[in-house]
Amino acid sequence: MSVQWASAKAPTLAEFEALAMDAWEKLPPEFRDIAGDLLIRVEDFATDEILDGLGIEDPFELTGLYQGVSLTKQSVMESAREPDMVFLYRRAILDEWSENGEELGHLIGHVLIHEIGHHFGFSDEDMEHIEAGAAS
Length: 136
Description:
The protein is mainly alpha-helical and about 140 residues long. The chain is built from six helices and three strands. It has helices at about 15-25, 30-35, 50-55, 90-100, 105-120, 125-135, and strands spanning about 40-45, 65, 85-90.
């Protein structure tokens, strides 16, 4: 299939968010259950504060970030806190997508799985298995 690049446009933040929600819905239910009431936010880039805190100079190097307290560190004694969130950085993901040609929805799912998976201590093998389940 030939892509008509002259008329192609990058998805807007809203369109990208719809792709992210579709990718979320395709994840195996047991994986979504582990993540709980996770919020997914789409932004063009990570903030300078986040990039500086992670020691990242190029905002195109960060495609996503999990922000929250993992289940293993949560306590019933905690006061109310911010909900757990995964940030998807649209421009960085689009840059990776343009380089590798992978289907965009699949790439977004990959970033979601890896941000959630790393946060909960899943191995790369575990995450590959989850991705295979999301693709079926």
